[in-house]
What we know:
There is one protein chain. The protein is an alpha/beta fold. The chain has 13 helices and eight strands. It has helices spanning 22-25, 55-68, 97-106, 122-135, 141-154, 159-166, 170-178, 184-191, 197-203, 209-220, 226-235, 246-263, 285-296; strands at residues 5-12, 32-38, 42-43, 74-83, 86-95, 110-115, 267-272, 275-280. The strands form two sheets. A six-stranded mixed beta sheet has the order 1-2-6-4-5-3. Strands 7-8 form a two-stranded antiparallel ribbon. β4 and β5 form a beta hairpin. α4 (122-135) runs antiparallel to α5 (141-154). The longest helix has 18 residues, at 246-263. The radius of gyration is 26 Å and the shape is elongated. It comes from Candidatus Yanofskybacteria bacterium RIFCSPHIGHO2_01_FULL_41_53. Keywords: Chromosome partition, DNA-binding.
Amino acid sequence: MSNNVKKMFGLGKGLESLIPGSKQMHPESQKENVFYVEINKIRPNPDQPRQDFDQDGIKELSMSIRKYGVLQPLLVSKVEEEGLRGRNVYYQLIAGERRLKASKLAGIPNVPVVIRDDFVTKGAKLEVALVENVQRKDLNPIEEAEAYDRLAKEFSLTQNDIAQKVGKSREVVANAIRLLALPKDIKESLRGGVLSRAHARALLAFGDETKQREVYGHIMGGRLSSKDVEQMASSSKPSKKSKLSVQEMNRFQNLEKNLGEMLKVPVLIRSTDKGGHIVIKFATLQELNKVAKRIID
Length: 297
């Protein structure tokens, strides 16, 4: 056994709690062992679905690692390559990049790893990295959506296939992927945690990007809940019972926009069989006073 690798102890079926369906993916008789590996021998996973790491969280984890060590092994695969002085061996990370970053920050020379040489394909490594992150809720909504989208496009997996691998429903996977249809700046807001997943999903109900941006501005102003956005989207679409023409519906939407710009708050116009009503949204009593002043003046 290499001087760079020191055997630690057996894990048995430890990964079953991490990867759904692992009994089907790997032989039951397979026993996994944990080894200590030099940290400079481990290279990041180029297919890591998670791109944004909370630096404060990594600092906190590094402090814990200095005190207690790495409590959960990293998952790696062994890679051999020809060098100028013979064959070089390194380990490519499959899962555990946050722990690797924190360990480097903590300055520890060796980390515990599980070496899995059966994950040799790019698809297998991406699947495991995705599963680990999704199971731990470490991905932001856009990273999660991008990971699902890659699995679908690069590895020809259906949404049902993806759902089974990550232990979620097909609807959850489908709704996540739909978030990628939002404008770039709105997606970045969602990626950074400024916009909530619920608000983002509600914005998808507006097929028009201009309307999405308009409503997004109101959301950022703190004036609209996700339910408000859903109601706005619903009211902008003619129902089967509606007697309004498309031209009249467009006129309603233009009136909503013009009134909203004049009053500086979101405005909803609802049509009913007996006429309709106007809903003016406000967040604070001060904002209500300003709206009232603009109407009276």
